[in-house]
Every structure is written in structure tokens, then in C-alpha cells.
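Is FE2/S2 (inorganic) cluster placement plausible here? Inputs below.
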Amino acid sequence: MKNEFYLKVSRKTFMTQNALELEFEMPQALTQKFQFVAGQYITLCHDINGQEVRRSYSLCSAPSSQKWSVAIKRVSQGIFSNWAHDVLSVGDSLKVLPPEGRFTLETQNNDTNHYLAIAAGSGITPIMSMIQETLTKSPKAKFSLIYGNQNQTETMFAQNLNDLVARFSERFDLVSFFSREDVPGARFGRIDNGALRHLMSQQLAGTTFDQFFLCGPEAMIETAKTTLTDFGGTSQNTHYELFFSAPKESATLASGQSTITVVLDGVSDTFVIDKETPVLDAVLAKDLDPPYSCQGGVCSSCIARVSEGKATMIKNQILTDGEVEEGLVLTCQALVESDAIVIDYDNV
Ligand code: FES
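Reply from A.M.:
I modeled the complex. C-alpha cells:
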């Protein structure tokens, strides 16, 4: 049975000129299926110009609120985001895949952690869910947020964050960066190494953070990961999610063809694949129904196991070295290297 469901849009609110929030009506029968942990995303699907387009969006509502909301920023040339902004209406039904994702914060009632999140632009969406869930569910937990944007008018969730600062002033603080507007009380510029180092060693000096959550463009994440190692960040307590889908690189590692066997939902299919074609593309072209969403190596929904043969990923920012060693691949990024390969979606 396909793991896809139709949900009705119950609210569409513009929070800035180019960013909207969609809330979905959740039928009682699906609440269990759509339970989520703060930081997870859902995948929205729609046929546009005769082709199914899928995009994953982080849930920005708190899990305990029993609301399911996503925020969508308009991307120039973005087929789905432009359709959602211009055409999608309240009352429309959308095909939606249930929550997934490994970038999560699961807080408990007795949580005493102090969390630090660093977000830029639409990278704030999973962090919003984490902040709201932590502050409302865990009375002893604290949250600090460093949030970068170009200017105030394009800042997503600006009002919601100010409300949270006012409501939880003892347990939540916000440092805003604006790269194109000088705003009193905020930092001017990008969240780069120098600015972050200064902030951590001055304004946030003396605060011990237990966990770090980073979400935004790759350059910001790489900078923050490196800088935070001097302030308690380790590979265990620093979690991150890239928030962009870079175009596929054209580098081809091998040429020719290979025989591929795909194990999916207990059924095996064997066919020939060009070594230049990513595994996911070939599997979709065979009309099989593998899990996938972003097709850009960002979301992690397309993971499968190479149980025989060899594949190399064009890029991988998600799987750990250990996971790659044990044979896991992002199939949207995987190119086959061996002359025969078995890709198992059922054993991950
Ligand atoms: S489909 Fe998103 S990482 Fe492969």
C-alpha cells in the first residue's frame, strides 16, 4: 500500500511577501500516521504541467500542538513554491507523505538542557518547531537562537519569535543578524566565523550549551560547525540540516551499463542501468514506487542499502561514514560502479 495521503489545506497565511504558512486539516484517522518529532518534514506532491513534483518542507508547528503547518518560501524559478504561492488555496487537497527526517529534537518534561540553534533564512522552519515544543513542554529547558536574514521585512516568523521572547524571557533569547539592513539591537552582517566567535566569547560567554542545531545554507553550517568546536560543539552534540538543494553535479564516475536488482516492498526487479544515471532516476523510470522527496541529496528519504556491488554518491551530507561503510546510500545521489548491483530499500 502506498504511504501517501490526501490532506486539505485549512489555512494559508502570508508571513512575509515571499513566505507563507500552510496548515493542514488532519483527519482523526491519520493523526497517528502523522505524529512527528520537532525538526521532521513532510513531503508535498502535486502534478504540475503533467509531472508529479515533490518537495519536502519542515513542519514548523510544535508536535504537542497537534497542528501540522509548513512554511514555504517563494523560490525564483521554483515550480512548487510558485504554484503554492499563486494557485494553491484553502480547501484544496494535496498528496502528502508522512513525517520523516533525522534532524530532530525530542524534549521531555524533565529536560534541563540549554539548546543553541543557528538558522538562516527559511532554515528557521524546523527550528521553530523545536523552540516552541521545548519551551512549552519542558519548563526547565532553555533555548538560544541565532537567526540570520537579509532584512526585517523578509524575516520569517519575526512576530512569533518576538512573542516567544516576551513570553519566555527567562528561557529564550534571540540574537538577530541582518546582512542588508542596519537594525538597532541586531547584528549587521552574516553569521560568519568572526561574528559567531565574537558572540560566543562575549554575549554568550559563560553559557554552557548541551546541544547545537544548525539549519541553513551549506556555507553557514560548515562555518558554524567549525567555530562551535571551540565552544563545546562535537560531532555528537551538533546536528545540522542543509536547507537548499544544489543542482546535481555533472561529474560521472563510471560509464557503461550495469545490471541492477531493486528490492522494494518485498518484490525484486532486475533491469539494466546506465552508470551515469542516479539509481533513483532509473528506479522511477521503471515505474517502481521508491521513497523519495527532494532528489537533491538533502532530505534522506531515498536511503537504501547496497547489499551487493558498489555505488558512489555524487554528494552526501547526510549519511555518516559508518552508515556508508555498512552499505547505505542516498539513491538520488548514487551512481553504480560495479557491473552488477543489488539495491535494497527494505533493509535500511
Ligand atoms: S530524495 Fe532527498 S536525499 Fe534523496
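Short version: Residues 5-100 form a domain with the Elongation Factor Tu (Ef-tu); domain 3 fold (CATH 2.40.30.10).
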